[in-house]
Amino acid sequence: MTAASHRTGRAVPSRSATLHGRALAVLGAAASALVAAFVVMPGTLAASGPGEDFGRESELADAFRAAFVAYWNSGERAFPPDLDALVDYWFRYHVAKAVIAALLLSVLVAAGTLLWKAFLRADGPGAGKRFALASAGVLTTLLSLAAVMANVQGAAAPFASLLPLLPTGATGAADGALGAVLAQVGERLAVAPGAGEHAPAALDVMIGDFARHHEAMAAIAATVAVVLAVMSVPAWRRFGRTGPAERRTRRTLGSFGALAASAALFVMVVAVANTTTAAAPRPALLAFFEGGW
Per residue in 60-105, pLDDT tens? Predict the structure, then answer.
């Protein structure tokens, strides 16, 4: 006990604890700023010219639907100017979101590491609060990781990632000129490749980008699964070297190892599912246009 603690009768936080507290405060402020930036900034960062910053998703959807109809009816493989501008905008939008999400992930990993170390050192009533904070940190870190993965996928295949803005199923069929085009897309997708008339060039582009969309997620998910599996190994090794008397440390290491291994298994399932879809994209794309995706 320090001289100050003798005078006050209370324990005085150590210099290390004070530095950790300040570091957590800085990381918390950075995380809050990045969450706000993730929500607010991508549209502004993606806009490179007048009229390209879509304030609402409905504006983007309306512009894409009109451009999609024009593209299908053009009979050309290359995107017309309106659609090309939208695809470029959506690519930049996802790049901006992926970068911000990656920065947020880095901050959350750093904060989570400090919180778990503080939990392992803590005794008394404060330990429960630190455990709750550390657990919440793990959850938000996983959500940030999912955001990075989804936005890298969107940047890899921006045209395919715009397709969910189209109305599908019964909703799409009732939508005038767009409904007629969507019906034609569904009819063409239902025809086996090579059968009947030559498929429109737009359909080939759509199928190719849809396959690339799933190839990207397959590669991303496989990489993340390997990283998570590798991360679990040191935890299990330390778990094995930790004596039974250190129950909190063993419980924490075991929980982290199990979580990392489980997450790796789940992400690998995602990788396999996307690999399967990428190998045969046509049925999955048809299911989407029929309203089943």
Answer: 999 999 999 999 999 899 999 999 999 999 999 999 999 999 999 9
Tokens of 80: 């017309």
276 C-beta neighbours (distance < 10 Å), count: 13
Angle at 55 between CA 100 and CA 216, to 5 degrees: 45
Full-model pTM? 0.84
DSSP of 180-209, one letter per residue? Answer: HHHHHHHHHHHSPTTSSSPPPHHHHHHHHH
Nearby residues of 255 by Cβ (< 8 Å), 6 or more positions away: none
Q: Is 223 helix (H, G, I), strand (E, B) or coil?
A: helix
The position carrying tokens 């989570």 is 112
Contact present, 38 and 151 (Cβ < 8 Å): no
Rg (CA), the chain: 25
Structure tokens at 73: 């009816």
Instruction: Determine the Cα–Cα distance for residues 44 and 170; give it in Å rounded to an integer.
Output: 34
Q: Residue 135: what residue type?
A: S
Contact call for residues 267 and 219 (beta carbons, < 8 A): no
Amino acid at site 216? A
Token pair 């599908």 is at which residue?
168
Which amino acid appears at position 64 of this protein? F
Query: 286: which residues sit within 8 A by CB, 6+ positions away?
Result: 186, 189, 190
In terms of Cα–Cα distance, which of 213, 76, 116 is closest to 157?
Answer: 213
Is residue 199 within 8 A of residue 210, CB to CB? The reply is no
Exposure letters 96-116 (e unless 16+ CB within 10 A, then b): bbbbbbbbbbbbbebbbebbb
Q: Residues 108, 137: contact at Cβ < 8 Å? A: yes
- According to DSSP, residue 194 is labeled T
* Cα 175 from Cα 284, distance rounded (Å): 22
| pLDDT tens readout for residues 14-23 | 565 566 678 8
